[in-house]
């Protein structure tokens, strides 16, 4: 039988990932501190802590991959119209983007995908928190199990 204390700690492990909006890398620091200090007290807390940390590491990995694919498309498109040899100062400086290229469309699609993934991440964290509050186990979708 799970106590309310165990359910609350598991819930706060998931909710502590939102601390990234206040503290840099808070989405890793918060869950790791709560998990490490409480993992020996309950298998339930240990499982939820591992799930939260694995999900955050997976999200970081996916964000790095999407960023690595997306950023070059925008950079190549923006700097394509700039002639660095005839640069005469900032008073003459302008960027002519011209008509959209396929690179811009690909980058835009990947950027939109990143926004949708961010919203889904927030939804999955709330769902995991509610499952922990109710004493249920939860597996985040598309999570790589780094901690087993």
Structure, described:
By secondary structure, the chain is an all-alpha fold. The protein has one domain. The chain is 64% helix and 0% strand. It contains four helices and no strands. The mean pLDDT is 85. It comes from Seonamhaeicola sediminis. It is found in: Membrane. InterPro entries: MamF_MmsF. The chain crosses the membrane at residues 12-36, 57-82, 102-130. This is DUF4870 domain-containing protein.
What's the gist of this structure?
It is found in: Membrane. The protein is mainly α.
Radius of gyration: 21 Å
Low-confidence stretches: none
Terminal residue distance: 23 Å
Total number of beta strands: 0
Shape: elongated
- What amount of the residues lies in strands? under 5%
What is the total number of structural domains? 1
Structural class estimated from helices and strands: mainly alpha
Instruction: Give average pLDDT, whole number.
Output: 85
The level of helicity is 55-70%
Could you describe the largest sheet, including whether it forms a barrel? none
- What is the ordering of alpha helices and beta strands? HHHH
Tally of separate helices: 4
InterPro entries: MamF_MmsF
Protein name: DUF4870 domain-containing protein
Keywords: Membrane, Transmembrane, Transmembrane helix
Main location: membrane
Keywords:
elongated; single chain; 148 residues; DUF4870 domain-containing protein; mainly alpha; 4 helices; membrane
What topology emerges from the helices and strands here?
Layout: H1 4-15, H2 26-38, H3 43-80, H4 102-133
Helix pairs in contact: 1-2, 1-3, 1-4, 2-3, 3-4
Keywords: Membrane, Transmembrane, Transmembrane helix
Protein name: DUF4870 domain-containing protein
InterPro entries: MamF_MmsF
């Amino acid at each position: 039988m799970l106590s309310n204390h165990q359910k609350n700690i598991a819930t706060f492990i998931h909710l502590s990932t939102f601390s990234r909006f206040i503290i840099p890398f808070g989405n890793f620091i918060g869950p790791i501190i709560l998990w490490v200090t409480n993992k020996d007290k309950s298998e339930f807390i240990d499982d939820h802590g591992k799930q939260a940390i694995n999900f955050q590491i997976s999200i970081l990995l996916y964000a790095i991959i999407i960023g690595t694919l997306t950023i070059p498309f925008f950079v190549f498109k923006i700097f394509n119209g700039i002639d660095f040899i005839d640069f005469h100062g900032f008073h003459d400086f302008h960027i002519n983007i011209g008509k959209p290229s396929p690179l811009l469309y690909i980058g835009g699609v990947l950027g939109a995908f990143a926004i949708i993934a961010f919203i889904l991440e927030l939804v999955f964290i709330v769902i995991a928190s509610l499952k922990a509050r109710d004493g249920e186990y939860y597996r985040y979708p598309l999570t790589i199990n780094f901690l087993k």
